[in-house]
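REVIEWER CHECKLIST
Item 1: Sequence provided? yes
Item 2: Single chain? yes
Item 3: Sequence as submitted:
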Amino acid sequence: MLPLDPRLKPRRPYLLGISGGRDSVALFHALLEAGCSKLTLCHLNHQIRGLFSSDDAAFVRELAEKHELPFEIGRMNVPRLADEQGLSIESAAREARHHFFAECAKRRKCNSVLLAHHADDNAETLLFNLLRGSAGLKGMQFQTPLTMGRRKLTLVRPLLRTRRNEIDTYLAERRIPYRDDASNFAPVATRNRLRNEALPLLREIMGREVVPTLLRAADTSSEQEDCLEALLDHLGLLDPQGRLFLPKLRDLPPALQRRAIFNYLKANQVCDLSRDLLDRCLKLLDPANPARENLPGDRQLRRRASRLFID
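Item 4: Structure as written out by the authors:
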């Protein structure tokens, strides 16, 4: 049986984000084995892979019908969304999924969304964030709050301590079919290259598995992050309208200023948070500098009346 996080509550209703690929299909079957019967399968056709995307949706529909479970199938032209909002395909796809999950949550009256991210995904995220320099050694969490408009969601990752090879073994032993996505191996997306090139090279250089080491380092960093977040919460940097209050922000050391801006942008669903972007946003604290900074997704961070806010 595939190990699931013990914090998962099998009797609760959940939405399951399912692509039809290896990881999400493995999670689906593991959930059934664990007694999770109140599942709604949620699949978004990103319209990236032509007829293959339509076949993925059909596969998920058949899987739901076979197990007599409710399902939601949505469509979004992610390439067009990426072009319109100036986002990468990865960021646009994530944004589209989150909006889709919010719609499903409203229709199904269920705000908890299960995702199939596993330990190796987490290691890729750790490297990705570290190399971008925006969030330090920060990875995924078992639960992550997400606000989409007025809808508050909770993203839940029951496989976050499970390795990719465990998932492969689980599927092979049970002969469970799933959909293959060839784009996962294309050397185009940054995460694909981290998965298929960087991590294997690091393993070769170190002569041992590096994923467990990265995850242990992330646990240590997470403890320190919790202390930092508690301090920022205690300082109360937001005004009643949810804007950053500049007089308080200006009194902080630059590291805390940067972290406060990072948290604010992330809480407002701003994607692609690089160190360079955070440094440019920090310049807004100086009244001698321009009062606005462009953000991904055709948005702006603005300074007015001693406040920072997104427009």
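Item 5: Key structural point noted by reviewer: The radius of gyration is 21 Å.
Item 6: Recommendation: ____
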